[in-house]
Amino acid sequence: MTTLSPLAAIAIGGILALWLAAAIWALMKGAQQQRQGAHAQDQLDRLTALIESAPAIVAMVRPDGRLEATDRLSTWLGLEQVPAFASELTGADGGLSAEDSAALARDIGAAQRAGRPFSRPVRALGSSRSLMVRGAPASPELAESGSVVLWFFDATESQSEILGLQAHVSQLRDALETLAGLIEAAPLPMWHRGPDQKLSLVNSAYVRAVDGIDAARVIHEGIELVEAVEGISPGEAAAQAALTGGPLERLVPATIDGERRTMRVVDVPLGEAGVAGFAMDQHELEQVRVELRRLEAAQRDLLDRLSAGVARFGADRSLRFWNQPFISLFALDAGHLADAPAFERVLDRMREAGRIPEHRDFPAWRAERRDWFLSPEPREENWLLADGTHLRVYAQPLPDGGLLMIFEDRTEQVMLSSARDTLLRVRTATFDNLFESIGVFSQDGRLHLWNNRFRVMWGVPEEMLAAHPRIDELMAKVQTRLAKPHQANVVRELVRAATVERKQRMGHVGFADGRIFEFAAIPLPDGNALFTMLDVTDSRKMEQALRDRNEALEQADKVKTAFVTNMSYELRTPLTSIAGFAEMMNEGYAGELSEAARDYVRGIVESTQRLSMLIDNVLDMTQSEAGTLAIERKTVDLAALARASAQRLEPDARAKNIEWVVDLQPSLGAVHGDARRIGQALDHLLENAVRYCGEGARVLIHGDGDGHKARLVVSDNGPGIDHGRQAARPGIGLPLARRLVEAHGGVLTLLSEPGEGTVAAMELPRG
């Protein structure tokens, strides 16, 4: 075995050490490069992931036409795999339309040759995507010369938005053209000013208003429509509108077609585009406003003069107007109303005054009335107040959202209506319960009203009368019920005379059953005619019976008069003999009589005198009833006659201790008549006064008169007729006195109250 020299060993050791050091350095360098490679790989992976997650796909086209791209491109293009060459991408099977493929191939070729970037929208046939392809030459650091980088963007949403924007732009363009045509055709002047506030556009109405030739000439010459007002020109007013950023309205004068007009000018700022303006002719409007104010004033004056209460509420439901009747009707305070109270508050005040109907739930009732503001139709209702007042309430919604309310006091009308209804019911009941048959015919001859007796009398059904037949139709229906059917023409003619000629006619007609009716046709004030028929069958029979009875009574009266006359004369003969013999015996022709016999004889004489007087009274009464009482006509001194009667009866009065007073005035005078008959009547009055007055009574004979008549009054303070005279013994004195006074054309008045006495006044005419 060979042994190494130390030098060789040292050399070998040195070589091994160097090798070891080199190996260690290599290992350390390798580890460092490995770490750098891993870091670079991580960065590559991150960049690859970043590119994969980008909204665009990048592809590289090499100079030899090779295509480098990710698999996402095949998904976007709807292909199974990514094309290997650009020719496959732009070929028939590249997923693009032929037109898009050809255009993309041209763009890629131009980019390779001339280095020109491009942008091309394409649509994938295998999907619904719209793509945007952007291409540019690759930088030398990225690839060799002639390479092209392609970026594929998904432009589906943006393309839809672009299409929508294009459609919107098209609509705006159409609207702009329409608006321009509308502005040109507008009847009112319109214009546009640029940022310098000079005219840049005017319409035809503006040109006509300023008497311009055309729009270009008006713009070039800067002809303004309106004048400067208070030193502010139209351009300055437009600048002020642009400065404030809001529309500016003003009323300015202008001369149009040679007439001064009031124009409302409106300047509308358009930002950087300038200011647009238009002008409206306010001349007629201002005149209408003046007329409206005049009309409102007249309307207020008219409403104040109405008897109905009127209140108008605005859209905010506050009271805007009221008239004086409204205040009076609801007892409201004008000062409170002047504060424009709300609708609800006005109802509250009306309730406090007791001028609205009572309701259990007043808030609900008030809410219902508040809904009247929103009602599309007018409302009407009736209010019955606690004091019996009837109000008709009419609520009319106004176009401006307000409410007009009218309150009409219908109390009197309701009362009149009630009275009318009552009157109609009373009239109907009266008509139906009258004994007469009543029918009212109108001017055209039709039956208008009738009562139940009219229907029953003619035997006509109610249905026929309800049809309001004409008089000729009615008579044709009922003429068979008449005893003489042709008399139907008489009835028809009478109704015609009453309705047409306005003449009243009467007559009678007989029915076939023997009844007799009296009828009358009477014109009424309203142009109609009243036709009445009364069944006089019984009255005719009664008249005949009464006529027969009257004849019998007249005959009996004649017999009675003759009997009384004969009896009076027959009684006078023996009575005269009795009286004569009694007077002879009283005078002693038959010898001296005892005192008792003399009393008997005097009683016989007095009785025969009284009986003679009664016979004379009966005879006078009978003659006066028969009208055969003889009355003389001579001048009679009533004072002398009254004194003689008073003297004759004064002894009887003294015997009863009666105060006898005679008061005859000079005005009593004289009358033309029969003194004996007047004295006879006065004697009867005095005899009654003396006979029925008690002890200590007072009798007054008074006489006075005037140029036309004389009056004799006999009064007493006796018991009166009811308690004294008629109860004691009735006689013919007073009836005979009345007959005697009436035979002279006078009047005998008798006044008597029980316990108050009696007054008998006899008035006689002077002639």
From TrEMBL:
EC nos: 2.7.13.3
MF terms (GO), sorted A to Z: phosphorelay sensor kinase activity
Pfam families in UniProt: HATPase_c, HisKA, PAS_7
InterPro entries (alphabetical): HATPase_C_sf, HATPase_dom, His_kinase_dom, HisK_dim/P_dom, HisK_dim/P_sf, PAS-like_dom_sf, Sensor_HK_Regulatory, Sig_transdc_His_kin-like_C
Domain Histidine kinase: 566-767
Keywords: Kinase, Phosphoprotein, Transferase, Two-component regulatory system
SMART domains given in the database record: HATPase_c, HisKA
Keyword Phosphoprotein set for record: yes
Catalysed reactions, semicolon-separated: ATP + protein L-histidine = ADP + protein N-phospho-L-histidine
Tagged with keyword Phosphoprotein: yes
UniProt protein name: histidine kinase
